[in-house]
């Protein structure tokens, strides 16, 4: 199986791991991932459950993701799931 790959500055290949899921149950809406993402893939949204209105980070443009995993590294609650994408 072949995955989408990128080229580093030194010319070597790497396999990006693109954003797939963000657990709103784990998210504390701290905004760290939003600040880390340079490609406007994320935004805060609100939802309601039995405990009332809550805010969580949402994936708003996964197609813009370059697979850098900066969001996951910034997240203190391990909310993200990333994976390579088939070419
Ligand atoms: S992997 Fe990188 S580009 Fe993709 S959502 Fe996370 S920070 Fe943004
Ligand atoms: S860094 Fe993690 S906990 Fe903070 S807003 Fe992003 S997904 Fe939620």
From TrEMBL:
It comes from the Bacteria. The keyword Iron applies. One of its GO terms (molecular function) is iron-sulfur cluster binding. Residues 26-78 form the 4Fe-4S ferredoxin-type domain. InterPro entries: 4Fe4S_Fe-S-bd, 4Fe4S_Fe_S_CS, FdIII_4_nif. Keywords: Iron, Iron-sulfur, Metal-binding, Nitrogen fixation. The keyword Metal-binding applies. NCBIfam families: fdxN_nitrog. This is Ferredoxin III. It comes from Seleniivibrio woodruffii.
